[in-house]
Structure of Fucolectin tachylectin-4 pentraxin-1 domain-containing protein:
Amino acid sequence: MRRQEVAMETSPGRCDTGEGFLVSQSKETGQSTTYHCLNEYQCKAGAGVDGIIADNNMFHTKDELRPLWWVNLGKVYKVLKVVSTNRIDCCADRLRQMLVHVGEKLETSPMELCGQSIGPAVDVQVIVTLCKTLPEGQIVKLTSVNSKPTAFHLTEVEVYGV
């Protein structure tokens, strides 16, 4: 199923309603490692911003202490919120703590913390991370913080900005 877009940045006559514009869909992505899923599964970084919410479509890393996933928005935005949809079919409780950073570069030190989620999460949970400080940046990075090596996987990530 495809998630309906709230607003499109390029649509003439559309205005920001306070929720911001969806600025992440189909943008360049990356992840720290890539888990090689079964043939019927899509587990590459781009699945995180393709608009498809399905049990076989997600980004998925290998087991790591701090696996990460990122999206390059293409230009600098003021980020209002990040909406993440957890994995649907299983294993959602692997997500214990997730940090969301925004910045110009991928390195954490110059990036500003937008917010965090403390789990454990549940299947199909939609996690809304509000960026109270309205950080500005081109890169949005999500990091899963673990006490032992664990995979990081989400079905969809939507970044809203102005």
Notes: The chain has no helices and nine strands. The chain has one domain: 21-161. The two ends are 27 Å apart (CA to CA).
